[in-house]
């Protein structure tokens, strides 16, 4: 799944209860094109910018269609216009201008300050990562010494942080301002379906009073109030404790099932059946099986790590797989449709990538061993 589609899907699922979300992809299409098609002055050419926007729009359209399919909004009956008009008045009170920014400021403003304090340039964790010195030794240093150490790495860090806030903050405000009308519209449709006309009129009457107006303007922001967030966090330990206490009982209720097969567990006959189902060359599956078999203990370690995934990781992976499955199959990627020359070229490049990856892992292991010797650290394998 593409980065944009994954981000929109994850953002919608994770933040739908809050009514707003903001996703920051690790590598947006704009950045990808910028790296490959820069203008002579070092900026981005108009053609590259247009291509990047077109690519982003295509990805976003696919993601929007996926989210619409997930929530089934296209199948809903039309809303009564008179009731919708009342609901629009309701949501205008619930999401006043600047309401989203106020709500997010409650959470992310405090969160940002705390993260900067705990993980900023002068924090024990940051200095430990940069220097390799244990955190407890850094914790023994006074504040001025920590600042001096941080200044050696980046004497302009304060200006850099200030510049980031100066540049990014107005952009976030603009984004939230642009988002508010869409959110009001979506919420108005939801209210119009959930409440009757008289109920909406009664709400609007209350919101027209001084107390009602104050409540409506603060309701969304209060849902993200620091005291609410702290109270929810404090409620987690007893809940987790219940799961721990009931662990043995719950474990008995799960039936023992055979372990899921991997590619390395399949016979040639099973691989042939798999190749027919997937419409791929059986040689590709056999090569992959042989490659995994050649990894030995590394594969076992990966399998063990996979077994330790959290339920959240598994759910996210399942959602991504379902989203990918919902897309159209491109027969152009079916290798049985390729010419022999094209297939040989791709397989040769895949082999080269595999060999280069193995060489990189070996070089990394050798570098780590040399570093341990230099630092006088024991070899974990001994």
How would you describe the overall organization of this protein?
The protein is mainly alpha-helical and 382 residues long. The chain has four domains: 3-75, no CATH class; 81-223, no CATH class; 263-327, no CATH class; 338-382, no CATH class. 74% of the residues lie in helices and 0% in strands. Helix 2 (29-36) packs antiparallel against helix 3, helix 4 (81-94) runs antiparallel to helix 9 (157-194) and helix 5 packs parallel to helix 11 (210-223). The longest helix is centred in the middle third of the chain and has 38 residues, at 157-194. It is extended, with a radius of gyration of 28 Å. The two termini are 41 Å apart. Mean pLDDT is 75; it is low at 1-36, 297-316 and 318-329.
Keywords for this structure?
382 residues, mainly alpha, disordered N terminus
Query: In this structure, how is the largest beta sheet organized?
Result: none
Order of helices and strands: HHHHHHHHHHHHHHHHHHH
Mean pLDDT, as a whole number?
Answer: 75
Percent strand equals under 5%
In short:
This protein is mostly helical and 382 residues long.
Please render the helix and strand layout as text.
Blueprint lengths: L2 H13 L13 H8 L9 H26 L9 H14 L4 H21 L4 H8 L3 H5 L3 H11 L3 H38 L2 H11 L2 H14 L2 H9 L1 H10 L1 H7 L14 H11 L3 H14 L1 H11 L3 H16 L13 H36 L7
